[in-house]
Amino acid sequence: VDRAYPRSVWGVLKISRTLVALATLLCFVASKAHETYAALAGMETVITFLFLLLYLLRLDARMRCLFWPLADILNSVIAALFLLVVCLFAIITRTNKGTLAGGVLGLILLALCLTDAVLLCKKISLDKARGRSAPAK
Q1: Which has the higher per-residue pLDDT, 130 or 66?
Q2: Is residue 45 located within the same domain as residue 85?
Q3: Of 66, 86, 113, at which residue does a domain stop?
Q4: 30: containing domain
Q5: pLDDT per residue as tens digits for the range 39-96
């Protein structure tokens, strides 16, 4: 178990993404909103929690068949696109206050997804040296 990960920037971001996604899911379920809203929030909760476990248990270092930070970036970008559409629909339709609250929390989750993607892109480009250290001639 990586005890430093939950205190790192990436760990705090993953934990907050998981909690906000769970709160969004609970708002959509409690308000009896359209099933699509709850399904997206539920999938985002589960996928983000699985990535959190992957990094927390250091499974990314053991399973080298996939470049996990890139998969995490793709997940964040795709989730952000889906969240943008679904949460805007939830806010526009706002059948009740629970749907409106879920839509607003979903937009906060969208911002967290984009922040996560940007930070992961910076981490990838800064952590790994690419190519030779001498300039090409």
Answers
A1: 66
A2: no
A3: 66
A4: 1-66
A5: 998 999 999 999 889 888 887 778 788 777 888 889 999 999 999 999 888 888 878 8
Task: Enter the pTM of the model.
Answer: 0.82
Of residues 18 and 98, which shows the higher confidence score?
Answer: 18
Number of compact structural domains in the chain? 2
User: For the residues of the chain, what is the DSSP string, one character each?
Assistant: --TTGGGSHHHHHHHHHHHHHHHHHHHHHHTT--HHHHHHHHHHHHHHHHHHHHHHTTHHHH-TTS-HHHHHHHHHHHHHHHHHHHHHHHHHH--SHHHHHHHHHHHHHHHHHHHHHHHHHHHHHHHS--S-SSPP-
In a shared domain, residues 123 and 82: yes
